[in-house]
Design brief:
- By secondary structure, this protein is of the alpha+beta class.
- Helices cover about 40% and strands about 15% of the residues.
- It contains five helices and six strands, in the order αβββαβααββα.
- The strands form two sheets. It has a four-stranded mixed sheet, with helices on both faces.
- β5 and β6 form a beta hairpin.
- The protein is globular, with a radius of gyration of 19 Å.
- It starts with a helix and ends with a helix.
- About 10% of the residues have low confidence.
């Protein structure tokens, strides 16, 4: 018979091995729900570069919807997806329903890039993608306000993050997007 402490160690090792095997490896392991209510697995964007942005309609940075739309229009044919993730986590600046959010984005900014349903992006109740992003890139990369941006490479890796103040059309974001698109185009040849 095994001593009890050895059984405990073996059981703990086995459970931790299973947890590691099942833990998400890339952004493609996550799913959202589209603002229309349909499943939105990030795996559908495999091979594409994705800019994931937590958004809000009543924020001082809401004008970035316009820059996100411009970025989407500029790069979508090369494989960029802009994904807007409405959240009411900061200052209650996204109080509307999904229908209200969608209408606001379409009427005010001609947004036609994909949007998700409203989710939490911080704290214990955060969407699993945001919890994974924090574990992967560290606490300093977690959203501190609306319009925080994550750049996901075509392979699903988190490539970089950009603070609220960094505009989607800034040189820093544009260069990072172009580098991912060029790498994907080079790999496709």
């Amino acid at each position: 018979m095994f001593p009890r402490f050895l059984l405990t160690i073996v059981a703990a090792f086995t459970l931790s091995s299973v947890a590691v095997a099942e833990s998400p490896k890339t952004a493609h392991d996550f799913a959202f729900t589209s603002i229309e209510g349909d499943p939105l697995p990030l795996s559908q964007f495999e091979g594409k570069t994705v800019l994931v942005v937590n958004t809000a309609s009543l924020c001082g940075f809401t004008h970035q919807y316009g820059d996100l739309q411009k970025t989407w229009e500029r790069y979508r044919d090369r494989g960029l997806v802009v994904l807007g993730v409405p959240s009411n986590d900061f200052g209650n600046q996204e109080p509307g329903t999904e229908a209200e959010i969608k209408k606001f984005c379409e009427v005010n900014f001609d947004v036609d890039f994909p949007l998700t349903t409203k989710v939490r992006v911080k704290g214990e109740q955060a969407h699993p993608f945001y919890k994974w992003s924090a574990r992967t890139l560290g606490n300093e990369a977690t959203p501190r306000w609306n319009f925080h941006k994550y750049l996901v490479g075509p392979d699903g890796r988190l490539v970089d993050w950009f603070s609220t103040q960094t505009a989607p059309t800034s040189a820093k974001v544009t260069q990072a997007i172009e580098a991912q698109l060029a790498a994907a185009e080079g790999a496709a040849r």
